[in-house]
Amino acid sequence: MAHRNEVWITGVGLVSSLGADAREHAEKLFLSGSGVVPIIDETRYSPYPVHPLVPLDFSSQISRKSDQKQMELWQRIGVYAAGLALSDAGIAGDAALLDRTDLVVAAGSGERDTKVDCEVLERLGSREDAALLAKEVLPSALRPTLFLAQLSNMLAGNISIVHNVTGSSRTFMGEEMAGLAAIENAFRRIQAGQADRILVGGALNAEREDLLLGYEIGHNLWRGPHRLVWERCDEGGGFIPGSVGAFVVLEARAHAEDRSAKPYARIAAVETDRASRAPGQTVQALMQLFARLNAGSNPSGPLLALSGASGVEPASGEELVFLASLAVQNPEITVRAYGSLLGHSVEAHFPLGIALAALALEQGSAPPPFGQSDIERPFSGSVQHVLVTGVGHWRGEGLALLQAIE
Amino acid sequence: MGSRMLDPKGRSVVVVTGIGLVTSLGIGVRACWERLVSGHSGVKPISRFPTEGLRTTIAGTVDDLDVTPLSAHDLSLAMAEVAASEAIAQAGIGRVGHFPGPLIVATPPSELEWPHLNRLVEVPSDAELAGYQRILANARSGAFADLARHVRFAAIADSLQERFGTEGEPLSICTACASGATTIQLGLEAIRRGQTEAALCIGTDATVHPEGLIRFSLLSALSTANEAPHKASKPFSKRRDGFVMAEGAGALVLESYDAAKARGARVLAVVRGCGEKADDYHRTRSRPDGTAIIGAIRKTLEDACVAPEEIDYINAHGTSTPENDKMEYVSLHAVLGDHLARTPISSNKSMVGHTLIAAGSVEAVFSVMTLGTGVLPPTINYDEPDPELPLDVVPNVSRPARVSTILSNSFGFGGQNVCVVFSEEPA
Question: Which value does ipTM take for this structure?
Fold first, then answer.
């Protein structure tokens, strides 16, 4: 095997229901002592709770109003978070660096105009009259520029336009698998010397009826009052969507050192797979991934496991079995399901876990347990190794191991 | 172990050992190729939904697969399965139900279509709910779980993985109309870095439905030459007036040269290199000086270790929009210079139409066939050349010519520019 470059995280851009940047997340997650209360809106889309985005002044990252108008909210969230990550990495505004920065995005669908959808359905009535639809309704109802947003790659396109990231641009789809693929692809390319510096992440706007519909058709949403991820597993399962924008800048160590960039952490390994959700398959897949993850890197001592569990069954229950088996081998493992606090952000969820792991390693500490349970126990030691898990509500499993840079 | 197993940069040489195709010209590589080189068009009046009153009423639909009721997801999957089966069979790789490498598939947007939404809203509801609240309440019943595949972006890849037994996490890609080329790039990179010895790369798109057509129509991107459908797509000609939407799927089996030789596989072509460059100018338009497209072509040649003069045929993106064809010419000229005038270039889209997400895959298959047969497919409907674009477009009839190195271009909305160089197996 050829020489492998060390992969560093040199920038974090984060927005969610909890905060407007990485700093605010770090303060609330790691420094508040007793832990923070999740921000939830249980009424607007009742019976579906969602974690709403904090109020943001998008102009601070997307200066041209014309650009903002061309974007739906999920794109603005992503472009905003991407801008934060570039600034944090010290790349923003550096034309020469941006020209050689690659872009990898995890994305889902564009937002539908639900008002238009309803109008169309009203006019269609029960006729299923395709002629009427094609001739009279859609041409006047659809807005040409916004429809482009149905293309998943338009978040990446807008990041290129607003922030001038133009090295290359790739968008992965597939719900949680999109986030797993994006992180893994960026990691492997840098490790193999196929790229030097990659901006990678995703965004979710949870506050959308069309998004809720997409997941409710598959019966994946939690209904009723907010519950922590692990509690939901025992009560039938379901995820609570959270608005999130999560981007990180990954960089080859040599390139980061050349420009004196400050690293948060190194990514030691990323492994992904796709198992069915037949009983036992998810546990088995995670065990195998963990074995592969550990083959190249050997974490000893305390391990913080930032779990991206969604709360959807059977995926999250099986992940819990996997985490329990790790605890048998390593009693110093500490679990935190970050979806309990920030909601589930689907495509952005694994990148979110990577971003939170970077903050944990920068702080050297774990967040207080999210709620009270036997699963999440207090931890007061120094965090040197973080395991990030990503188990898709329907498909896709991934693990990443991050380490502190001494 | 000869040096031909490694390229000049010391990386594994990557080859194509299987190809598969479904287009508006037919099902299977042979059927599509024979009609392509004889200058047939697959563009026809749309018959699957009423088009009266629409500005554009033609498309290169795929109507030969039995998919009922029709949906973008189900037809995209069916075409991908046919193309992948053909490619895997030709490659003779793996065993039934097990392909020894990852799946990398470019798929169209996953969304509910109007018949689906109509089903959801029409259920009698006991509560006084309207609009999306009513739809959501009906979805809660669980009675519509069969629609989930239409909104899951992972669904097409997952079905293909089940069918062909590909390994690891399947990748679902969107780089708009460059997506097919991106699947090849991802496969090439994965093999080069030693992650796998083989990859199944597929692009598929079946989005000729009312909303899909109207969207592109509203962007003024489509040809409105409805009277003579087969004449509508006219890349590089003076009166080109937009692209023609089309459906199709292309599949390629990529392997390391070592692995292919070790199992005695026939090598159809070498994937010499890929390159890409993102444009930050506009959501649907290229930077007027062509910087990004030029960058993509240059990076591709550099990656492939090929000099501009070595390109002896270009499989154009050639959509037949005024903007694309002009920018493609300008950019090619900037990189190839005088050599461009001596380099034949043709657009498969003049016959197949624009297969959008699948275009890079479909055109890669045609590029491989061009290498193997020594026939350059024509650009049909080239009746009135655009004097601004002085190109040898292989006008109207195909041409026999031995070519050994082909540049294939793919450009997409959102500033996506990806190019691939294919060449013959080294002697």
Answer: 0.98
Q: Is B132 at the interface with chain A, CB within 8 A?
A: yes
What is the band of B1 on the pLDDT scale with cuts at 50, 70, 90?
A: very low
At residue A73's C-alpha, the angle toward residues A71 and A78, to 5°, is 85
**How many other CB atoms are there within 10 angstroms of residue B352's CB atom?**
31
| Beta strands B405-412; B313-315: pairing state | parallel
Residue B151 with chain A: CB contacts under 8 Å: 109, 213-214, 217-218
Considering only A45-59, A152-166, B45-59, B232-246, which range has the smallest mean pLDDT?
B45-59
3-state secondary structure at position A80: helix
Structure confidence by residue, pLDDT tens digits, A197-218: 999 999 999 999 999 999 999 9
CATH code for the structural domain at A7-110+151-403? 3.40.47.10
- Please list, in sequence order, all residues whose beta carbon lies within 8 angstroms of the beta carbon of residue A251, skipping any fewer than 6 positions away: A7, A8, A9, A10, A89, A190, A196, A197, A198, A261, A263
Distance from CA of A168 to the nearest CA of B (A): 5
pTM: 0.97
Structural domains of chain B ordered from first start: 13-110+152-422 (3.40.47.10), 114-149 (no CATH)
CA distance B174 to A105: 10
User: A161, B176: Cβ pair inside 8 Å?
Assistant: no
**% helix, strand, coil for chain B, step of 5:** 35, 20, 40
Distance from C-alpha of B16 to C-alpha of B270, rounded to nearest angstrom: 6
Contact indicator for A337, A358 with CB cutoff of 8 Å:
no
Please tell me the distance from the alpha carbon of residue B178 to that of residue B334, in angstroms, as a whole number. Answer: 21
Q: Domains of chain A: which residue ranges?
A: 7-110+151-403, 114-145
Determine whether the interchain pair A148/B284 forms a contact, defined as Cβ–Cβ distance below 8 Å: yes
Q: What is the DSSP letter of A133?
A: I
Residue B124 touches chain A, beta carbons under 8 Å: no
Asked if the Cβ–Cβ distance from A180 to B175 is below 8 Å, we say no
Smallest Cα distance from B319 to chain A, Å: 18
Q: How far apart are CA B308 and CA B298, in angstroms?
A: 9
Catalytic residues of B: 177, 317, 354
